[in-house]
Design a protein that fits this description.
Helices cover about 20% and strands about 40% of the residues. The strands form 14 sheets. Strands 1-55-54-53 form a four-stranded antiparallel sheet, with no helix packed on it. It has a four-stranded antiparallel sheet with strand order 5-6-7-8, with no helix packed on it.
């Protein structure tokens, strides 16, 4: 009898040891996740328990009846087969549970299913061992087997119920400094900084489906400080008034003037309209539709209306001829009017017909289109010159090319064709597949190419001579315009308020005029907190006024910006990307001062010395290079990391430089001494964020593994762990940014998680 009890007890002890030694799954750091884990575990335990009791009962009945009928050889075969099957089931259960996270709603079922399979495997092993013993199961042994099953289930219930409580205590101990969670950036935070006074937090990060803008947070409430700069309507009209002067009209009736070279908005003109604006640039003047049947003529230099032209009906479209010497308007009823701007009267009136959808002007002709029709008239006489047939739906876009000798048309036909016509003979030259629902065409300065745009996004460059089509990637415009010299194309953001500038020669996006067109990767704040710089995936660095979040300058870096740093006096900006390496820019002029050459591989981190005398860079080649900002020459090379370097930070007193890398270590260097660095070890993930306490004696570090730790620099040891997530978490937590409040009483961390993107930890440390 003792032996029959010893085996079930041994099986239960083995099961308990297996579960206790289990690799810790990801446990949520809030009560909601733990409660969910507990409830899910108990529900699955009840269901699995019923299934196990039924299975065990059936197995005992079968084994009891077969025990006397089977030969010893068959019992051994059946027992061995059961042991093999039990071992395989146990291994499968371990693999299934270890690969899942019980805190993730899709994985909890599989985690507990793995536990259930493990329980069944243990019971199968026990029953198979009884078969191998050669002794049939008697009534007392059957009762013992049943109690063994109940004991195993009880152990499982205790472990499943106690494990979340243990984790809750553990997380509570780790997070005792955690004071606030700020939620806002939908895809995480890449940069964070306190502003002077410590009551406001500045952050940049990833926001799904939106243009990327800096955000300001009130630490008193944890709410975002409202900035309505970004609540702009979609751009509906664009035109260049000069090689670098852009005018945009929006769906809310506003007109904005831009300096493309500097990326600045110069002015906002109030038209009084409550709907979409139509524009036509006339050299130093601008024509726009106005309330009623009127056209407003603006002086761009004086930013005011010079006069108003009375049209025969509400104006729905405006077009300017080459050089801005001709103005043509289309009214709601379908009439086209060519204006004598000197006398302010209609020079030529053409009845195009109802349903007019598109308008274009050349030196000597005007073209209009509607439902399945395209017509071209002589601009001087008003005589109809061509009727172009072929389209079967609304023709939404027209553009002249080759000095007016070619007309390009695009319609909403099911075959979405772009047609290129030679107007001299009125014949079709090329037929191309265009974007869905075309809404715009713009001709390059040389007249040899046109750019197309579709209502559902997409942008293509078409060669009018060969008919070849090239996709312009990274652009999804709502409206397009070409600069007079052909260097730039401006476009509105599809279904958004942004403006994007493209370099047509290189076929690449330069950046956005209203904010970053893509996600912001880096943030650096000036020493006085008056302004800050951001760098993004759109290849631009942008300078902003902190008080108003007004953008003051755009620097076209020509590639993705991975990290940047402002010099303490705010005159220099260092940036780095995947192709060109570190670059040093003048903040005042936006000019490139030095391209810093020497690193082998990509540079991942930048930091200025507090007195501005040196710039530190580190990257894939495992070296830290110290540069002279005035000469752009490397003055010192530091080596010590065993893998790439991902973060750098100077201490406030300038005596120390901390570096973190993919070797999971933090090195602390003496900036004025040639001594070996102090090595701080303990992290189990790449160190990607560093921040010194204002007294320079404490260092915070954050990793890709999801931990934030504090280190005492004088003692060279870890003070404590503020937060840590297991490495086998289903959703990897990445710490991208750290910053201490100016008084050192609080630490902010930026995370790449959908919720709790900013965590605040309060001292004392």
């Amino acid at each position: 009898m003792k032996s029959s009890i010893r085996s079930p007890a041994l099986a239960a002890a083995c099961l308990a040891a297996l579960i206790l030694a289990w690799p810790p799954p990801a446990i949520a750091s809030d009560m909601g996740g733990l409660v969910y884990l507990l409830i899910a575990g108990l529900i699955f335990l009840v269901l699995v328990g019923l299934a196990l009791l039924i299975a065990i009962g059936a197995s005992l009945v079968v084994l009891t009846r077969l025990g006397d009928r089977l030969s010893a050889r068959r019992r051994r075969v059946l027992g061995v087969a059961g042991i093999v099957l039990g071992c395989l089931a146990g291994l499968a259960a371990l693999g299934l549970a270890a690969s899942c996270s019980p805190t993730h709603h899709k994985d909890a079922a599989f985690f507990y299913l793995g536990l259930a399979i493990l329980l069944m495997a243990v019971i199968l092993l026990y029953l198979s061992a009884r078969l191998l013993s050669g002794q049939p199961l008697e009534a007392a042994q059957r009762r013992t087997a049943r109690w063994t099953a109940v004991a195993i289930l009880a152990i499982g219930a205790a472990l499943i119920g106690a494990y979340p409580l243990v984790q809750l205590v553990r997380q509570g101990r780790l997070e005792r400094h955690l004071s606030k969670r700020i939620r806002g950036h939908s895809l995480g935070v890449t940069g964070i900084a306190y502003l002077p006074g410590g009551e406001t937090l500045l952050s940049v990060g990833h926001d799904s489906g939106e243009l990327s803008h800096p955000r300001l947070w009130s630490l008193a409430t944890g709410a975002e400080i409202d900035r309505r700069e970004w609540d702009q309507a979609e751009v509906t009209a664009l035109c260049f008034s000069g090689p670098r002067s852009l005018v945009s009209g929006r769906a809310d009736g506003s007109i904005e003037l831009w300096d493309v070279a500097r990326g600045l908005r110069l002015a906002n003109l109030d038209t009084g309209l409550k709907g979409e604006v139509s524009l036509a640039c006339l050299g130093g003047q601008l024509a726009s539709n106005a309330e009623g049947a009127a056209i407003a003529i603006w002086s761009l230099a004086e930013q005011r209306v010079l006069r108003s032209l009375s049209a025969s009906g509400p104006v729905v479209a405006l077009a300017a001829g080459p050089g801005g010497r001709t103005l043509v308007s289309a009214e709601q009823g379908g009439a086209i009017e060519a204006w004598d701007l000197a006398e302010g009267r209609v020079r030529q009136r053409i009845e195009a017909g109802a349903g007019l959808c598109a308008l274009a002007v050349s030196e000597k002709a005007v073209a209009a289109a509607g439902h399945a029709w395209v017509k071209v008239w002589d601009l001087e006489t008003g005589a109809l010159r061509h009727t172009l047939a072929g389209h079967g739906d609304d023709v939404r876009a027209l553009a002249f090319g080759a000095g007016g000798g070619i007309l390009v048309t695009a319609s909403e036909d099911q075959d979405r064709k772009i047609r290129i016509w030679q107007l001299g003979e009125g014949r079709l030259l090329h037929e191309l597949e265009g974007p869905w629902y075309p809404r715009g065409l713009a001709t390059t300065a040389d007249g040899k190419r046109v750019v197309t745009r579709g209502a559902l996004g997409g942008c293509q460059l078409v060669d009018l001579g060969s008919g070849e089509l090239e996709e312009l990637r990274g652009v999804s415009p709502s409206v397009i315009a070409m600069s007079p010299d052909g260097a730039f194309m401006a476009s509105g953001v599809h279904r958004g308020p942004g403006l994007i500038v493209c370099d047509l020669a290189r076929m690449r996006v330069l950046g956005s005029l209203t904010g970053h067109a893509q996600q912001i990767q880096a943030l650096s704040v000036s020493a006085d907190g008056a302004f800050f710089a951001t760098g993004g995936q759109d290849g631009t660095c942008r300078l902003w006024r902190t008080e108003t979040l007004e953008q003051t300058r755009v620097i076209w870096c020509q590639e993705r910006v991975d990290d940047l740093a402002l010099s303490p006096d705010g005159t220099l900006l260092a940036s780095t990307g995947p192709e060109r390496g570190p670059q040093l820019w003048s903040v005042t002029s936006g000019e490139l001062l030095h391209a810093l050459r020497g690193h082998e591989g990509q540079v991942e981190a930048l930091a200025f010395h507090p007195d501005g005398s040196e710039l530190a860079t580190g990257g894939e080649d495992r070296t830290i290079r110290i540069w002279s900002p005035s000469t752009g020459e490397a003055v010192r090379i530091l080596q010590g990391h065993g893998h790439w370097i991902g973060s750098l930070a100077y201490s406030p007193d300038g005596a120390l430089l901390a570096s973190g890398g993919a070797d999971d270590a933090v090195l602390v260097w003496r900036t004025r001494e040639q001594a070996e660095p102090a090595r701080l070890e303990g992290h189990s993930g790449s160190v990607r964020a560093l921040a010194f306490h204002p007294d320079s004696a404490l260092l915070a570090s954050g990793t890709w593994g999801g931990s934030v730790r504090l280190w005492s620099i004088p003692e060279g040891r870890q003070v404590e762990t503020l937060i840590e997530f297991p490495q086998k978490a289903f959703e990897l937590k990445l710490v991208h940014a750290l910053a201490f409040r100016p008084d050192g009483a609080q630490l902010a961390s930026g995370w790449s998680v959908s919720n709790d993107a900013i965590l605040l930890f309060d001292g004392p440390w």
